[in-house]
# Entry
Amino acid sequence: MGNLDENAIDLLTAQHEQIRHLLDKLKAGQDDKGELFTEMVRLLAVHETAEEEVVHAVARRSAFGADEIIRPRLVEENAVKHALAELYDLGVDHPEFDTKLADFAAAFTAHAANEETEEFPFLRKQFSVNQLERWAGMLRAAEKVAPTRPHPHAGETGLANLVTSPPLAVFDRVRDAVRDWRHTNGH
# Structure
């Protein structure tokens, strides 16, 4: 669970750093590539869904000028989701995986940098510390019911995610449980 004084911007920035770290380990070709990729996919899918449902949705409704900053980030996020879905479908053993992973890593890094240098400073100016701290709690709640895999065709708005996320999350979490059971039981 997060700290009581944790705010949404700090939480999202820390998640960006976790994803970058996982990408670095994946690009380095570590032995546990499949597990690292699964962890990265889960973290990124949950992160993007919660961000769209909470931060982007609330900011776009509340702050003048937010849409001009957030709309390009949504386009980037949609491209990242599509690239992640393609990587997921390929699998870590596919001969093109490493090349596509490098392209994906570059796209994610650019997107995260844009959020951190354009969107997040804007949000810090427009919203109070108290609001950003409440958003962190909302993000944590949204993450608990977010899908654990990319679903790029489900939509890129907070409303689309609110409608599609719960059933997709249930499906993903059942698949995760079966995968984990098989892995644990040697099947």
